[in-house]
Design a protein that fits this description.
Blueprint (H helix, E strand, L loop, with lengths): L3 H19 L9 E5 L6 H17 L3 E5 L6 H8 L7 E6 H10 L11 E16 L8 H10 L5 E4 L5 H13 L4 E4 L3 H9 L5 E5 H9 L4 E5 L25 E9 L4 H15 L2 H9 L3 E2 L4 H22 L5
Parallel strand pairs: 1-2, 1-3, 5-6
Antiparallel strand pairs: 3-9, 4-7, 4-8, 4-9, 4-10
Helix pairs in contact: 2-9, 4-11, 6-11
Length: 324
């Protein structure tokens, strides 16, 4: 006999079944993609692959890296911004696409604040000021004295307006009151060849590219851009302690998701990458390329990104830097 109670129970069970069927599966239930907006083999790629390896190991779900390059990182970053906000497309963000480009490019293809959900800053990578051995300076004080006595005589290798090899030198010029002329190359490898061939006198280059040349004796290193001496080259002084007080510049790397990604997914991603990047083996791999773990919360990353944007906006405005 059918009773109102049995009908009610059946309807409740049906509703429960429908609710269960409509609910999204536990995250992650399919492969995740991490976009690296620079070519394979570089720092962006390494950060993406370390992150992918950590998430795949933790969750047993495939995590793939897609190198989507071009326009100084804008193409890959734009693709991430326009992806579904479901946690299945992430992007490695960095100084250029997230803090420098907004002040350099009039019509950005994405909004680096409104279009992204910060997850965590992962690591920072300082650069090193290197000179050709023929430059008459064995330390930063001698270099600054020579530059001030010979304004416009020295040249530096740049890899394009707004990239770290350019903005870091412009920051140095502004803070130290010196004049050095840029020579632009297509990428770090060409810039390094230019310095090796004495086409230019100096450059400020990231650790993975600079350190092997320093160790081989091909360049003379005068200082690091870091706020303190680095683990990779502890005997190299900072610019701040070498005559340019207050100078500090890093290339930083962070993990972002598209804006609108559910908060529980952002929280889960943050917890997992934070745990992974504290592991000794990850720290060791980063140290090999002169990088250091520098984890933040999503809120701290947002505040840090804002401060970096203000900093580089001032440098770009005062130096009169224009997009190429």
């Amino acid at each position: 006999m059918v009773t109102m109670r049995s009908v009610g129970a059946a309807l409740a069970a049906l509703a429960s079944t429908a609710s269960w069927a409509d609910a999204p599966p536990a995250y992650p239930s399919r492969p995740i993609k991490i976009i690296a907006s620079q070519p394979p083999g570089g720092a962006f790629d390494m950060m993406a692959r370390l992150t992918a390896e950590a998430l795949q190991k933790a969750w047993g779900q495939a995590v793939v890296v897609e190198n989507k390059t071009g326009a100084g990182g804008l193409i890959g970053t734009e693709a991430a911004a326009k992806s579904a906000p479901d946690g299945y497309t992430l992007v490695i963000g960095s100084t250029g696409p997230f803090a420098v480009s907004p002040s350099l490019i009039r019509q950005m293809p994405y909004d680096p604040v409104k279009d992204f959900a910060p997850i965590a800053r992962l690591a920072v990578m300082p650069s090193y000021l290197v000179v050709h051995p023929d430059v008459p300076a064995t330390n930063m004080q001698e270099f600054l004295a020579y530059a001030k006595a010979n304004p416009g005589k020295l040249t530096y290798a740049s890899t394009g307006n707004g990239l770290s090899q350019h903005t870091n030198v412009e920051l140095l010029k502004e803070m130290a009151g010196i004049s050095i002329l840029p020579v632009t190359y297509r990428g770090s490898s060409q810039a390094l060849l230019g310095l090796l061939g004495k086409q230019v006198d100096m450059m400020i280059e990231l650790g993975p590219q600079a350190i092997p040349q320093i160790q081989a004796g091909k360049f003379r290193v005068l200082a690091t851009t870091a706020g303190r001496r680095t683990h990779a080259m502890p005997n190299v002084p900072t610019l701040a302690e070498s005559g340019v007080p207050g100078y500090e510049a890093y290339t930083w790397f962070a993990l972002y998701a598209p804006a609108g990604t559910p908060a529980p997914i952002v929280k889960k991603l943050h917890a997992e990458v934070s745990s992974a990047f504290q592991a000794p083996q990850v720290r060791s791999k980063l140290a090999e390329i002169g990088a250091e773990v520098a984890l933040t919360t999503p809120e701290e990353l947002a505040a840090f990104q804002a401060s970096e944007t203000r900093k580089w906006h001032t440098v770009i405005r005062q130096a009169g830097i224009k997009a190429e």
